[in-house]
Amino acid sequence: MARPTGDTPDDLDLDATDDDATHIQCRLGEVLAERGMTLTELSARTGITVVNLSVLKNNRARAVRFSTLARICAVLQTTPGELLVHAPPERPESPS
């Protein structure tokens, strides 16, 4: 499992194996569209790399530091609850 190195302010743990994390969806793309902002502009304003923002936007991140989330929320003037949502997998209906 990859461990944050502290070398960059936006270390993401991309190798986590917790299946529950797949139920958390990042709405970064939607929030950016609502604000009329691009990933490149968000990157410039937060100091978070475009690559790491893209990982979040495309729901490939398995973990995110609170400091990273706080910077994104501050720039987008939003809250973690608006940016991250819990979306449990749909369960097939059982036959009646």
From TrEMBL:
CDD domains linked to this entry: HTH_XRE
- Could you tell me which SUPFAM superfamilies the record lists for this protein? lambda repressor-like DNA-binding domains
Could you tell me which residue ranges the HTH cro/C1-type domain spans?
A: 34-83
A molecular-function term among this protein's GO annotations: DNA binding
Name by which UniProt lists this protein: HTH cro/C1-type domain-containing protein
In its UniProt entry, the species of origin is given as Actinotalea fermentans
